[in-house]
Each structure stands twice: as C-alpha cells, then as structure tokens.
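User: Last request for today: this protein with zinc ion, please.
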Amino acid sequence: MSSGMRRGFLLSTTHTGRGGPALGSRVTPKKIAEIKIPCHPENQPEEAPAKGETTDDMTHLVLTVVPPSSPLLPDPDMYSALISFKTQKEKLLAIPGFPTSFTTPSPPVYRVQRAGGRFQGLGMFATQEVHIGDLIVRERALLITTQYVPPGPDGRPNIHAFDVAVHQQMSAPRRAMYLALSNIFPELPQTLGILNTNSLYIGALPGYNGACGGVFNDISRINHSCRPNAVFWWDLQSFSGQIRALAPIRPGEQIFITYIDMWPTRTVRQATLLKKYRFRCACGACTLTGAYAQYSDLRRAFIAMQLGDDLDGSTTDADLLAWAGNPALPDTMLVNAAELWLNWLLGEREMEERLSRVVFSRLCKAYAALEDEEAVKKYARQAAAYETAWTGSDGGWLAVAAAPQETAWWGLRRKARESNPSS
Ligand SMILES: [Zn+2]
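Assistant: Here's the final one, the structure of the complex with zinc ion:
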C-alpha cells in the first residue's frame, strides 16, 4: 500500500526484540485461490519470475518429499509432497538440520466436524478452552507447491505435476486425505481444484521469491471469518504450518482464520471472497447493518491508513520521548490515543501484527513513563499473548510485565517535572 501522508502518532518501534523463527516465513494468512497461469498476461507481473530472474532451472518443476525419504523416519504421515524448482529444493535441503521436528498439542484441542448453519462443509471446533497465543495445531502440509507453474511441452501450464504429486508421491493415507478435501472448482482437474480451494499462502521458499501455497489435512478445513479468532503462520525451519488463538475460544466454538486482507470495506471483502472462494461471507462483521456497518468500514479504513506507513521501518520513539520530557503536555495525551487504536483493533478483531505491536509498545512505554504499574502489567501481558500468537514466543513482554520499573521508560514524566519545576 502506498501513501503520501505521514501519520505520526503511531510511528514507533517496540523495544522488545522481534521473536519468531529466524527462518520462518511470516505471512498474512490468506488462501491462494488459483494457480496463476503463465500464459495469461494479467497474471504475469506478480506470479511469473521477473525478466532476468528466470534460470534454466525454472523451466520445469521438481517433485520431491520433505523430509527426504529415509527408511529411518518412523512416521510416513509427516511427509509433505513438494512441487518446487530445483534450486529451491537444493537450498531447502541444504539448511542445517532441515526440517526440524515439532510437536502439536496432544490430545488435540480441536475437532474437525460438520460446521452446519451457513457453512456447507466441515469446520474446525475447539474441544477445550483456548487462550490468546495458545497453539491449536501444528501440521506438516500434504502438499507444498510454488504458485507459478511453468508451461509444459505443449505450452500450457503443467498442471500434470499436481496429479503426479498426489497420485504417485503421497502415501495412500495422505492421498485419501487430500482427495477428501472440498473442491469448489469442479470445472478444473480434481487435484488442481482441491489445491485452489484449500491452499494457504506460505510466502516464498529459498531460491525463488514467488509465492508458495500449502494444503493441509486439518488446517485447510478451517473456515473464514472477517473477525477471525485464530491466525495461521508458516515456519520454514520445521516445514510446518501452525494455528494459534487470537481470541479466547470456548469448547465447542468454531475456529476461524481470514483468507483475505481484513482492511477493505465489507463490499470489497465480499466481492473478493465470492470471486476467489465462491461463498458469501456472513460473519459478524459482514452481517452488521446501518451505522454499525459504516462504523466497521471506517475503522478498517483507519487501520489500513496506519498500515500504509512503514511501521517496521523508519520509526522512532521521538514523539513519545518529546511528550515524556515535556510536563506542559497532558499526561493522558498518548495513552488515550493508543487505547483508542487498541479498541478499534479489538473491535474489528483485526489484531494485525505490526500495528498491534506498535500500539502495545506505546501503551507500555507511556504508562511506564507515568509510573502506572498496573497498566504496564496489563498491556505487557496482553502483548505477550498476542506476540506468542504471531511468533510462538512472548518477545520479551513477560519480563516487562514482571518488572515494569526495570524498563528505561519508568518515571520519565516525574523526572521531567523534577527538572522543570516551573512547568
Ligand atoms: Zn465477513
């Protein structure tokens, strides 16, 4: 998103280190709706390799499995079929220790069952109470593939690769799982239709910047909501996808992720979902009426504007420091603004990672400057939970919650008043 405006007040970096797996591809949880067809000019710019990027390697796909076959591996269900370019495969397998093992909650904290109501197929439901940040499931994909598929010998996209991957590479149980997934594109070959219906965007794999998608046995069953209570992310090092809670979830409650960007208006979101996934969203945000619907659109527009700025980049704490050091400014100035943003994010259930992190960081710094211990603890604990949802680690926030006085921001307002007694 580009924006000519600079909006200053949220520009700040968190002082806590960025957690998460160094090699993890942290991406927005949207599904890939279609394999882009290289012979369609309108699909070229994003999906096809740029001129000069194409190597000999990229004229054809390589089919393999991850981890590489070995008679020593005990669990054949932990394999992903991988469709990639040769360089990608080589770079992946060259990562030391790749892929690392992982665990998922056992016994499971969810069940896949008929969703009922407005949903046609299955959905994922919590079987016990889940808290923000909790891991719900971690899973190796049935199939991982590049989104760009080079043409075959006949000049058409080589979708034959999907048939080979599913019918020749997968074990019988894995193949049965794949073929049991829903297919909303009956006009396409079955393996491709299932891929387009179920694959989640996992970002790029080493060796090529183009997008890749993953199809999962359980994770792909999760339905969409524009007010999701869970988030999907992909970890390259363990070659697994994971779902973590973004809201408290009660037993029996359905688990939702978002398939698309959340900030567009309801009209735009609905059109996107209808086109890409062929359903009309009837989530809590999409069924609002009148002024409530307008308010939701407006809040999402504000969130989008903030995201238009480079929150991760050239951001500083300059305005926070200026406020902290100037007793003439109101005590509540920055916390009021940040709390308003947090309420908007929570109200839309749009806990966007970068923006939420900035808001929590500002709240904790400002309240530390004001020596409000309870407020710092409250927001640092919330930040820890969300950080865990986004990255798998609390990012240092629990240490802040344990000892707010230890932060560099503690008491800055008092110190400023003491050195400016006249203000
Ligand atoms: Zn919706």
